[in-house]
Design brief:
By secondary structure, the protein is of the alpha/beta class. Strand 6 and strand 7 form a beta hairpin. The longest helix has 20 residues. The radius of gyration is 19 Å and the shape is globular. The termini are far apart.
């Protein structure tokens, strides 16, 4: 832990808010999760149990550390009460610019000037969000990358050097590597490479070259990784994936025809509420998705000799 931060408020109790609060509380911080949806808050406990089990297997923390971390996490459906006495706020709402501007304007008004405000945005710029803030010096992007051991930190036009310094120390206190960008870049480093990867996978399926399971199998075997692009999209959330790709289209990095195909493919999932891990159903069904089952990579009866 670092002296300047004791309590963190996570605005948005989706996949990223649940993971981030686990990571922080496992390292001694007090966390409160806020969401406008009581349904999302009601799902936090079960989802963190599933996430924690997976993170323990990967060696992120031990079972006793996980159990202790859960005691430091509280839930709150009221924003004003949730942010009370917080030293740091981490926003992870949907990737919609006006929504993020509105949320941060509220946070800016509710929190004393010394409280740091951060966005976990995957695709938007600090300079696009911070226009509504009175205290722009305390605002930055602090982007957790799932359970990957690095955190992107990016300042905007008004972000102070002290804010970056505190966030860098905070990231290191979580045993992660802070990656501080020299200047703003939507998608940071990882997502600037990750989103074209997801787009390519989607178009392979949409254009009829393969089914999604074979796309995942191919990537998992070729790269010796436990996840393919479609299982990773389930983890991110299909609504978030579409929002991020829409932002890429807005910036003319994906052509209109490709975006239209992807949008028409993803929208039925989103309309049904099949958003991925956070809803229990996406491209795969959770908590026991097919890609984690024995035999997913190799067909039954396959002779290795």
């Amino acid at each position: 832990m670092i002296n300047k931060i004791r309590k963190i408020c996570f605005v948005g109790a989706g996949t990223q808010g649940c993971i981030n609060s686990l990571m922080c509380s496992a390292h001694g911080y007090s966390s409160v999760l806020y969401d406008i949806s009581q349904k999302m808050l009601d799902q936090v406990s079960l989802r963190q149990q599933h996430m924690g089990t997976h993170m323990i297997k990967l060696g992120y923390f031990t079972k006793p550390t996980f159990d202790e971390a859960l005691t430091r996490i509280s839930l709150c459906p009221e924003l004003e009460r949730a942010v009370a006495s917080a030293d740091l706020l981490s926003e992870s709402v949907n990737e919609k610019l006006e929504l993020k501007r509105t949320i941060h304007a509220q946070l800016d008004a509710l929190c004393p000037p010394e409280v740091l405000l951060t966005t976990n945005t995957s695709s938007l710029l600090v300079s696009e969000i911070e226009s509504e803030l009175k205290y722009g010096g305390r605002f930055a992007a602090m982007h957790f990358n799932g359970i990957s051991p690095f955190i992107d930190i990016v300042g905007g036009p008004r972000t102070s050097a002290e804010t970056i310094q505190i966030l860098t120390a905070f990231a290191r206190s979580l045993k992660t590597r802070p990656v501080i960008l020299k200047k703003e870049k939507d998608g940071y480093l990882s997502n600037s490479m990750f989103i074209p990867f997801l787009t390519a996978a989607l178009l392979l399926v949409i254009d009829g070259h393969a089914d999604l399971e074979d796309v995942d199998r191919t990537w998992m075997m070729a790269q010796d990784t436990p996840y393919g692009p479609f299982s990773q999209m389930d983890f991110v959330g299909l609504n978030v994936v579409l929002d991020v790709i829409r932002e890429q289209a807005r910036r003319s990095r994906i052509d209109a025809v490709q975006f239209d195909k992807i949008s028409r493919f993803l929208e039925p999932f989103i309309e049904r509420g099949d958003l991925g891990v956070k809803t229990g159903q996406g491209f795969y069904q959770y908590p026991n998705p097919a890609f984690r089952k024995p035999g997913f990579l190799m067909e039954e009866g396959f002779d290795e000799n």
